[in-house]
UniProtKB/TrEMBL annotation, chain A:
Superkingdom, natural source: Eukaryota
Subcellular compartments: Cell membrane
Alphabetical UniProt keywords: Cell membrane, GTP-binding, Lipoprotein, Membrane, Methylation, Nucleotide-binding, Prenylation
Cellular component, GO annotation: plasma membrane
Taxonomic lineage from the root: Eukaryota, Metazoa, Chordata, Craniata, Vertebrata
NCBIfam families tied to this protein: small_GTP
Cited function: Displays low GTPase activity and exists predominantly in the GTP-bound form.
One BP term from GO: signal transduction
Gene3D superfamilies attached to this UniProt entry: P-loop containing nucleotide triphosphate hydrolases (3.40.50.300)
Annotated membrane topology: Lipid-anchor
Family designation: Belongs to the small GTPase superfamily. Di-Ras family.
InterPro entries for the chain: P-loop_NTPase (IPR027417), Small_GTP-bd (IPR005225), Small_GTPase (IPR001806), Small_GTPase_Ras-type (IPR020849)
Record protein name field: Uncharacterized protein
From TrEMBL, chain B:
InterPro entries listed in its UniProt record: ARHGAP11A/B, Rho_GTPase_activation_prot, RhoGAP_dom
Name recorded for this polypeptide: Rho-GAP domain-containing protein
Domain Rho-GAP intervals: 41-228
SMART domains: RhoGAP
Domain of life the protein comes from: Eukaryota
Signal peptide: none
Length: 199, 244
């Protein structure tokens, strides 16, 4: 089936355990779970307004532990915008974004017209901070992308993150609010936890 | 007729469960030109040691898994990444034949175990078996699922079977400490999927198929004995064989 043409696809990348799923779930469902479950790959969709009409915002939450290279290429080539997440409590996690950024650059050719947000998550865990905001900003400047610190746990800057990201898209005029409706009507696609009766 | 005869096993899988299995391709003899001792080396060329319970298992797996078993309480073991420069250095040492695990951080060693599995020239679970494994996992009855998976494990070359038995036995021990390390069998299966059952093409990259791959690994982590050679827990192949 061909992809719906007016879908806007956002892909979330980052090392294991930095809070990619938590950010996405906080945004899509408004909840925070304190569980510990690695992601295979999940896609969430949400209706947003786009060029005076509506379109589907599709958010792909990827796995943090070694994504299969072909799968990573596929996610990047399908993505319109990217969120690169690290945890402010782990210097290693910002290091791990470098190869992913390089891969995006290689596949897209240039990142100039592509919305990318570097995100330092877990901003509430100040006692464990290893990466200063300044360092995140510097990295974002080097990558010519936007930067933000967030906390999925305390719901700090989460909605703003998605709003800013959409605002970076110059080819379309997108916003989270839909006239006359509250944003937040969403459905989860294809997720099949613990069931295997599809075949 | 021998119980282990692969054509009999295939027939049973077909008749009992409707699972047809691709022929395993004959492996070409591989030469290791890099001089590497651990990573990217075919199973049969790796230094291995004999463990009565499992058979011949690569020394690297035995050393690294034994090392990690003593540190199995580490939160997010196999999920959290170690330090990339340290992992690189450790890997170079191991590939040069140096034993240097004892002082390494557990997360680095865990990352190397995953790399080791990913980089085997022939994957531990051969691609020809993937479709059958996934089909077996979708069988409705638990008993049928187990029997079919066990029959499929009998089709593996002995060297793969020993290593998989050892690895899943180890992972099941790690998962038993999940109250400390938070890595349940399902979590471990998720992070090992790209290493042990990577999707070969785009159609296999759909969420449903990926999650099925995770479930196969979860079943193996919860039941490592499926790779065992103990005839007493082999499924009932024998009575059916006597019909012929």
């Amino acid at each position: 089936m061909p992809e719906q043409s007016n879908d806007y696809r956002v892909v979330v990348f980052g090392a294991g355990g930095v809070g990619k799923s938590s950010l996405v779930l906080r945004f899509v469902k408004g909840t925070f779970r304190d569980t510990y479950i690695p992601t295979v790959e999940d896609t969430y969709t949400q209706v947003i307004s786009c060029d005076k009409s509506v379109c589907t915002l599709q958010i792909t939450d990827t796995t943090g532990s070694h994504q299969f290279p072909a799968m990573q290429r596929l996610s990047i080539s399908k993505g319109h915008a990217f969120i690169l997440v690290y945890s402010i409590t782990s210097r290693q996690s910002i290091e791990e974004l470098k190869p992913i950024y390089q891969q995006i650059l290689a596949i897209k050719g240039s990142v100039e017209s592509i919305p990318i947000m570097l995100v330092g998550n877990k901003s509430d865990e100040t006692a464990q901070r290893e990466v200063e905001s300044k360092e995140g900003e510097a990295q974002a400047t080097a990558w010519k992308c936007a930067f933000m610190e967030t906390s999925a746990k305390t719901n700090f800057n989460v909605k703003e993150l998605f709003q800013e990201l959409l605002a970076l898209e110059k080819k379309r005029d997108m916003s989270l609010s839909i006239d006359g409706k509250r944003w937040g009507k969403q459905k989860r696609t294809d997720k099949l936890k613990g069931k295997c009766s599809v075949m | 007729m021998k119980v282990t005869d692969s054509s009999v096993i295939r027939l049973h899988l077909q008749v009992l469960y409707g699972i047809s299995v691709k022929r395993l391709e004959k492996r070409k003899e591989r030469l290791v030109l890099s001089g590497a001792k651990v990573f990217g080396v075919p199973l049969e060329s790796l230094p291995r040691q004999y463990l009565p319970e499992f058979g011949l298992v690569p020394c690297f797996l035995v050393d690294s898994c034994s090392f990690l078993l003593e540190r199995a309480g580490s939160v997010g073991l196999f999920r959290k990444s170690g330090s990339l420069p340290r992992i690189k250095a450790l890997r170079a040492k191991l590939n040069g034949g140096e034993g240097c695990l004892s002082t390494a951080p557990p997360y680095d060693v865990a990352a190397l175990i995953k790399q080791f599995c990913r980089e085997l020239p022939e994957p531990l679970l051969p691609c020809e078996l993937h479709a059958a494994l996934l089909k077996a996992q979708t069988l409705p009855g638990l008993q049928d699922r187990m029997s079919a998976l066990q029959l499929l494990s009998c089709l593996l070359p002995a060297r793969n079977c020993s290593s998989l038995h050892y690895l899943f036995h180890f992972l099941s021990k790690v998962s038993q400490r999940c109250s400390e390390n938070l890595m349940t069998s399902s979590n471990l299966a998720t992070v090992f999927m790209p290493c042990l059952l990577p999707p070969p093409n785009k159609t296999e990259m759909s969420q449903v198929r990926l999650e099925l791959r995770v479930l196969v690994l979860q079943t193996f982590i919860e039941n490592p004995h499926l790779f065992g050679n103990d005839p007493s827990c082999k499924p009932s192949v024998q009575p059916a064989c006597s019909d012929h």
